[in-house]
């Protein structure tokens, strides 16, 4: 069973919108080696897991899979920020508040930049597709049921994700893009370490080949700042009932050919989530004024309180 | 940010394995109107949401989207139970412990029942596909950015999910299948109520058309038991920080043309998750004996404790 | 601009339902060489046509494309008849009128015969998919813009359609299936003749290779009856304004290596369309009694009459 | 059974070609919420319809489905006009008449604008794909067999189509594009009205939420002109045998929260269809001169006259 | 540049046709981890290879990729043998020689066994699809351009292929199926060894985890016979110009945790290819009698002899 | 069984990189009418062939299919050359040697030109996709099993391939692109001749319609040079055992309405293959320096010699 908080796993730095950068980032969300895939692959591997004696491996998958849901949230929101109002609308503000008044074309940039679906199918938000517009496919999910194979695949998957994010980093200097890409480069390395370490417990010695790509990525300034914090050697469990045994695997020296030591924790603190503004020119006002008025006429009420055992959190 | 507990949202009743029933249930998992789709559709709608003034609607989507992750877990595990050892392997136990010893064919039923991929691609576990084997597609996710449209789509989506589950119920009397199908028939009605009620706050009056299909489904014995508990009129928030405002919408009389009243709660209690047994004939032992020995030679260790604010739960 | 009448282009002979035969017939509807494809391919070729001097070729495409819409109607309805109530529901009539009453399983045959989506996604009706469940794809449509190539492709397409229908004929002796398959074997030959003849006007001599497959198919009793009527040598224009010049091409000796002569006509007479009965166990009652009552309370009214020039037909 | 006339359902205003605008318009043709989908969805719903007592609903679907075939014709032809000769070929006319003479590159703009397939796979014509090049898919067609659900889906579908067309309008001021987009914005509203009204007959009251998006779109000048004619409140039957009962539903006050009244008619008058010119640089001459000569050597002949009952129209 | 001989890389043992087994084997041909994928993945990796200093790795990929073309030939032909005349046609021989004479149904088994497309779309031959009918997709090909990653992926790919073939072996005792499956289980292990060994040259030590699945498979009698010959430790270059440096990698002790030693050779001897008999009931006579007569009337002629340098072989 | 040499079938002329041209050329590789399709279609037709009496037709398919593997190699390598270093990286060489040092963006052109996957998923190499990014699909392969139909389809396929390559030629004057496109225009005509001639042996007379498109393409300067050599009338067998009987078909006057004569040969001489340089900014160094050192420390060794009968070539 899953829970959530209204916090983002990492901060998204504000910058100008950039639909081309947003489109590149779609690969990291809905691409064959993106976060939707890691999320669903690890969750399926966890749901279909066999052998209670191997529980620490199940728990490792369960925890990383849960983290990937938060990565989907992070990268989707970053794409939404990069498309929102992008890049600089032509014409007067009236064109935006009163779409098409007088025949203006506030969305004309959609014809030449990024993915036109960001403006036409969505309302300047993220889509479950890759950087050339292919929808995400269930055929991506790999779960052979053979633990060694599944771990090997996962190591390759995280390494490919990290490789692609290093390439995306080199495509744009937009700070919104880079704040998320840099964070994910480091977290992908943490997951590489997790799966490589799991294979080490089964007898594999990785020698000098890790991490993939073969760089700690300190040359990327935004990445360097996160490596300072040792974020590539920490793994979260995200378990509320403290039953995860992932820490039996994710410990001791990092397999990444540096001098790091692996440690686990429950979860990062996160940052509050902000809700985006309406976009009338997309007919995406959230609620239009007449409907909003209807709603607000309804009296406020407190949430009903119930008796389940999961009433954690600041107010409990 | 998302968390989890090692508990299933509802109990799965044991019965004989049945690969045909498992295949039918795949529609509810990876089909166009299945749980993977509701999960991802509501999460995308929540991530891309606009207008802070309409926050209760965002929170409603966020909470139902989080519940759907647990439904994916429930239905995937149910499918795994239905395929596990299915239906009754031919030949001696040796054939299973020593796959193909002497040329036996323990997996021959895969040629004629259900989805052969359950035995060939997976190791008798769930797959992200529908009941005819089409992989789940990102093109299913609908998120126009126009709130009224998104709510209307979601109402139609839940109603279609409920319709399909009623049809699946009529395809098999397997108790494992039915325990999950009956639960989801009721929860889909709760979600129908949620979206129908959200549209009521915007002025729509549904008259007599809800629920869809037009039955409270009491004729289904397993469903009747859950309706007794009023489970179709309760909605969970799954929020740990008690910030959800979904209860501003999900309250008052049910739109389902009965005399129910809508109320919210944080989460159900759930039941413990059990890990399945190894299947040597699938080469899915979890860990084979030699590797398991390697692992167990490693000393036990306690989980590292960290200082983040999310250390909820029994042991904190 | 397109019109319709409430008549089917050919009669569908009643017989027992047969979901396996229905599934085979899906290839002829939604398969790569089925009627949806011929319909859309010829319509696209017609819409994108170039060169007014070649108008007879455009009109030939336009007319056959229009006929194919009626073939889609015919084959879809045939599939619906073959799945309807199929094959013989188990249990009492109550199970059908009161779905799942007492936990019965009226739809259990869906687990083992034909395409489960006929019962689960549709309500025992036709689907836009092929015989292994792949959805129809726009990538099937061929329209190179080079007339010779388009005609060559169309000849191959009709011949393949005819080949596949001959094979389907050999898969089942169900009379409902065969009445439609036999009709389409003959019409596909008429279309083979049309495209082969169009290439003859451009100088090709087909020698002995036509028709494909190389048989007049008289050995198929249901086909023989239609060949008696010369239906393989007649082509319809379906044009209401009598502007089609297709008859400049479709005339003289048949290219099919027999002694037939090609002639054109406007349209066949057709037979009335019957609306299928409700299926309560699919929650497909058309309208449930309560809603039906609502509707019938509404007073009858005559259709508004307007002044457009297309008021053809019996009542005008 | 279906018929056609050589007339377009609405006029296409001439303007400069614009491949970027053509590509945006592909969404309205082959996109998930485009005209190919509405056409096939309503036709399938009509072919698979159950319950003769609910015939007016079947006839409503049948009529709108037939109209959508004409919309496919209109939008495909508009795309063909927008790509034809687009935007301004480089080099001398010789390059076009004698493709590649001296190595010139008349098609170089295909590398940077719109969809390269418009120039490479087609010969500057429409394709059955969406605005990012995904082929149309049969998986789009929704036909649950439950009438209320099908109507609800159709209402959502038309509203989404209208929303997307409003967005396309804001992307370009090309008059060819806009003449078709404006017409379809208004017709989509008529279809919204049709399905909303059908649900009203079953007891739903829409309050203030219609039309979606929440604007009569008078700010779009080309749309305003059509609203003047009340085109959003008229529905055509396109039936030649005058058996349609759609008018029992499509009547009385419009559900669109304005003071319109719904009325039915048989069909609009339409405008003549023009055949496009050859494009030698695409090797799409229709017929090349040598072949054309062959054809013209063939004597003219009149169309054979036949005796079927459908000989309507000016010449009969 | 590529060449071929009219010989199969391994013998196919005759047995009864079995369409269910044929369908299972499709996974090994057109599945996500089948031979079409390995063939194209290694060829693309070879064509796009970077760094002349790493030529032995390129040559290893080039050679295995070439072997996979022969595996595609082997497995496709095996499927064709398994479907040919399958399983035992009903009715008299006349039904086969004179398709549908008297309305018989020689192809009726296609409705209930294996993949109906084997009989309907193909003429009892192999298809480029997997075991649930999904067409092979270019999205399967992995070629990141990072050598370590590509090798890691290839190791996982061959291991998954071997795992799936072990499972197929356990589904049927048909000797035709097993002769090919057993051969490929052994060859997949040879390729596992190749990629594992390549990673060893880069410093990885595999410990005890190989081969995957963790068995030499001697319990499979047909496999044991091939292991006797050491076929799992031999790799072919298939190069005619003797330039391959793959032998610099594929040598020394096997990484498969046994006492084998890796060696290279040019190619196995192979066995002659036999052409299948006509199937009149599929309208697949090769040539029908009238056309065959036409052809045979043409005088025999010897092949033209040319002067290129590649005139190897018995007759040169 | 298949073999290879380390030679390209035709020379690739060097020029500036051009990612837009590379993308157009993808249609010729992974498009519906590209070389991957011809390769696999002819190989499947050859593997599934029926009737030993028709062996010359099988051998014709087998030989052209083998040639297409070399075409896939040629066109893939051409695309790799066109993307390599494209078009002119911004910033200092350091940015390339030390990716992202100081935050530079050497890959920024990927956001606006060609297919972003060339830089993000691949490392500036070819992909198995078409010019709009759709992955190659097994559904493209046509193999009805009816010889006349298969030949007719193949003729249409080669003609469409030639048409599309003529259009690509007109899109860019890049010499790298054109050297390959011109070669393939001529070879496609040779294959058109092959299939047209095969149908002539069965009695068809093509009159004036060939070749398609209707031009010998001498106006394309690069094509004219190859026509001088008569390359459009020569067909290769690529058979090492001299058993091909394709020459019984491919002989006598060309069906292409010119005065050419068809002749066969074994294979062209080809040109050596060059391995591309590393691209550090793609993390595609082949081997990074540390790993390369590891490898080179390993002593050189000669290839093992074996005794199979296929030891052809210069060194034997």
From TrEMBL, chains A, B, C, D, E, F:
Gene3D superfamilies in the record: 1.20.1260.10
Gene Ontology molecular functions: metal ion binding
Cofactor requirement: Mn(2+); Ca(2+)
Cofactor: binding comment: Binds 2 manganese ions per subunit.
Key words of the record: Calcium, Manganese, Metal-binding
Binding site for Ca(2+): 59
Similarity annotation: Belongs to the manganese catalase family.
Protein name: Mn-containing catalase
Species of origin: Saccharopolyspora phatthalungensis
